[in-house]
Amino acid sequence: MSDTQPAILLDKVNKWYGAMHVLRDVSLSVGQKERVVVCGPSGSGKSTMIRCINRLEVHQEGRIVVDGTELTDDLRALDTIRREVGMVFQSFNLFPHLTILENCTLAPIWVRKMPKAEAEALAMEYLARVKIPEQAKKYPGQLSGGQQQRVAIARALCMKPKIMLFDEPTSALDPEMIKEVLDTMIGLAETGMTMVCVTHEMGFARQVADRVIFMDRGEVVEQGPPTQMFESPQTDRLKLFLGQILRGH
Amino acid sequence: MRLSWSDPRLRNLVWQILIIGAVVLAGWYLAHNTNRNLEQRHIATGFGFLGQAASIPIGESLLSYTPSVSTYGRALLIGVLNTLKVAVAGVVLATVLGTLVGIARLSPNWLLSRIAAIYVETVRDIPVLLQLFFWYGLLQTLPPPRAAFHPLPGVFLSNRGVKLPTIAWHAAHFWALVAFLAGCVLVWLIGRAADRRQAATGRRPRTWPTTLAALLGLPILVWLGLGAPLHVDMPALHGFNFQGGISITPEYAALLTGLVVYTATYIAEIVRSGIQAVAAGQWEAAGALGLPRGLVLRRIVLPQALRVIVPPMTSQYLNLVKNSSLAIAIGYQDIVSIADTTLNQTGQSIEGIAIIMAVYLTFSLSISLFMNWYNAHIALVER
């Protein structure tokens, strides 16, 4: 794979829920090691868009190419892509009946066919990187929200993905826990990971993002570097949105 | 300390004394009344009748039994075994059928899920006693033995029940069975070895050829080594009925079918709700990690669904066991039926009822204890 090839390519993607048109001709190209923040009001289709990238949602028109593989009904293509794309959810979605360590080793053992000792060593390495190695033997229910989300990040990283998707990773957290998760994500960005992140954390976007995408009503309305987007928005819709979220902060 | 009615400890104490007093009083009244009535009617009490010869005709029995020679104790034991025979088979079959139907109802296949839904929504609304009459009546409409359906060699379906061929017992069969059990142990060891191999190398060795060889190959080798004795006992029509082979009576078949078909509807709903109770996020998170669907079901969804499924499942097992007492309505001789005849013949009503209660209490408590243990075993750790 060449470095010039985009990590993620969306070409005129359309999706409907029944009669509701949730993605309208969405085109987007994310380069290797690029960090993209997607923002927009609720119901703008940003979560649907990011979930289409690893086919948790199925698009109906257009093309999506991830890491050189086009997403189709073909199950082998899907397996290939899900192996290379990690995802972090708003509601953590840790497996409550498995320990933190088992949460992290399950996929490497069964999907990457990694020996158990190696998978555990890898998991401990990533748990150390998200600063909770001492919780390895506990269960998710025994951890705080912020800790659970950091475990979820470590769990995704244990598959050594090339691309990480974040779907509002801090929206379900108490304010004092948001920082610990954002710090983890900033640390990850510094390693050169390709990241697409749906978030309203504008501080994070300024610090980390190469590019900000603003979506509204299923469309990409405006995109650009964070400073340009936040300081001199071009469209009325982005101005309105920024006004609303800044008033909230 | 001053006694005050606003002191909760004093209130608790007073209430407890009153309640215990009422219970003791009621118990004393019942016992006293019973004893007086028994004396007035000159009825002897006690379990001495268990040793007397019973003149109860028994149609199907796992033990040898001769009316007017065998004792009431033996007749009641046969009743317990007959109840057990329908309860164990019923619980196993209802679980299998209910689980399949519950999963079918969640199937994306429109026809399959609709058929499962119609089955559940109609069958669970019909009283189980009516269903037993239905199945029994249906089996009675089968032709008489002379005109029996004969779908496979040695299999006969008639209004006398189902006749199946058996294999004449031989010592070699015993050793083949031992070899099969040894094979089961071997399969477990193979699984353990595969786990270790996977843990060490990451690759899970293919186990099904060795598993198959251990389960089937070993018993067959032992059987061949001992001369491969095989004599099939085929049922054949002699006069008005069949001889040879084994039979499933229409009463047992109707009772088992009715209880299984009825209870499976409830189990199907429990399984469906259990699987649906697992958050969609669990499927998504596992899918996003690249785990294949079968593995997600086995490792992620079912272990969590079981926690929701097990407690109501226990109730359904208890219901099935207790509903088996409806056997008396279609003439299957379970413990209630035989105890009923016993108390009619001996007049020992209190002892008879006590025996029935003791039997069901034992069965129910055993199921509860086992299921509670299992539930605690799979419980989630939180905090």
Protein model, in words:
The complex is a heterodimer of chains A (about 250) and B (about 375). By secondary structure, chain A is an alpha/beta fold. In chain A, about 40% of the residues lie in helices and about 25% in strands. Chain A contains nine helices and ten strands. Chain A has a six-stranded mixed β-sheet, with helices on both faces. A four-stranded antiparallel β-sheet of chain A has the order 2-1-4-5, covered by helices on one side. In chain A, a hairpin with a 2-residue loop joins strand 9 and strand 10 (about 220-225). The radius of gyration of chain A is 18 Å and the shape is globular. Chain B is mainly alpha-helical. Chain B is about 65% helix and about 5% strand. Chain B is built from eleven helices and seven strands. In chain B, strands 1-2-7 form a three-stranded antiparallel β-sheet. In chain B, strand 5 and strand 6 form a beta hairpin. In chain B, helix 2 packs antiparallel against helix 3 (about 110-125). The interface of A and B includes residues 96, 106, 107 and 119 of A.
How are the SSEs ordered, and which strands pair?
The complex is a heterodimer of chains A (249) and B (383).
Chain A: E1 8-17, E2 20-30, E3 35-39, H1 46-53, E4 61-66, E5 69-70, H2 75-84, E6 85-88, H3 100-110, H4 116-129, H5 145-157, E7 163-167, H6 175-190, E8 194-198, H7 202-208, E9 211-216, E10 219-224, H8 226-231, H9 236-248
Parallel strand pairs in A: 3-8, 3-9, 6-7, 7-8
Antiparallel strand pairs in A: 1-2, 1-4, 4-5, 9-10
Chain B: H1 8-40, H2 72-105, H3 110-123, H4 128-140, E1 156-158, E2 161-164, E3 166-167, H5 171-201, H6 208-225, E4 232-233, E5 236-238, E6 241-243, E7 246-248, H7 250-277, H8 280-288, H9 293-323, H10 335-346, H11 349-377
Antiparallel strand pairs in B: 1-2, 2-7, 3-4, 5-6
Helix pairs in contact in B: 2-3, 2-7, 2-10, 3-7, 4-7, 5-6, 7-9, 8-9, 9-11, 10-11
